[in-house]
Amino acid sequence: MFLLGSAYPTAKLGLNASIPPILFGSIRMAIVFICLLPFIKFELPKKKYILPLFGFAVSMGAAVNLFLYLSVNVSNILSPIVIGAQLSIPLAIIISSIFIGETITYKKWILIISSFIGILLIGFDPKITDEILGLLLICCMAVFYALAQVFSRYLKELDIKFTNGFMGIVGCITLLILSIFFEGNTIVHLKNLNFEAWLMALHHGIFCSLMGHMAMFYLYKFYPVGQVLPFYALFPIFGIMLSFFIFGEIPTLIMVTGGIIVITSVFLLQKIR
């Protein structure tokens, strides 16, 4: 969870080091694909896996990275978006109940609703009046992260290295095309990347994606989404701590209160069957 929590402050460092946000995501996915390439067995998957495989690749590889880096790029305060990313947890549980048939008890509904209340409370913090766009973008990321988690449940029989390698190449190409159209001068941007920028990109590709997310999605293959996701609630603690040590961010009382409501609600979801 430390690796996932480190994604937000290190993303800010990378963006501050001149990586355009969409290109950042493309480089990250390229690193994932290149690292997994030697271990991938190229076999055409069965037809039943095609749709969820593309759904997973587009959701996790392209959309999650797109909205993550855009959110960090427009935000001056990281704590609200680190906590806002937690919406992926209740959203994934809701989506999995619709498409997979996992049961949501009334106790789970109470905790899911309370997690949304915690996010809304943060949204009304006067200190983040200028950070609403970042919070909205991270909420979009949460939707696609939740979808990716559910898509991964249909891919249990596929090798995790293949699914993540496919995600890497689809995400890389999709984001590269978007970067060319919306950010422009892609070759110039790549030539101008300094050591710190590449270091942050490598951190995101190797540690956050390969070691962090792959470990999570490995668990999704064998356990219900509702049991795995609560551990995801721990990453905001590390994200906020790192934001404090790196940028000197001190969360307001409203942020802390909303964060406690969200993290506690999500954590308690794992206690309910």
Instruction: Report low-confidence residues grouped into runs of 5 or more.
Output: none
| Helix and strand composition category | mainly alpha
Strand percent estimate? under 5%
- Assign an overall shape: globular
Pattern of helices and strands: HHHHHHHHHHHHHH
Q: What is the total tally of β strands?
A: 0
Radius of gyration: 18 Å
The percent range for helix content is over 70%
The main sheet comes to: none
Number of helices: 14
Describe the SSE topology.
Blueprint: H1 2-5, H2 7-16, H3 21-36, H4 47-74, H5 79-84, H6 88-99, H7 106-123, H8 132-153, H9 160-182, H10 186-192, H11 195-220, H12 225-228, H13 235-247, H14 253-269
Helix pairs in contact: 2-4, 2-11, 3-4, 3-9, 3-11, 4-8, 4-9, 6-8, 7-14
Give a short synopsis of this structure:
The chain is mainly α and about 270 residues long.
Mind explaining what this structure looks like?
The chain is mainly alpha-helical. The protein has one domain. It is built from 14 helices and no strands. Helix 3 crosses helix 11. It is globular and about 45 Å long. The mean pLDDT is 85.
Attribute tags:
273 residues, mainly alpha, 14 helices, 75% helix, globular
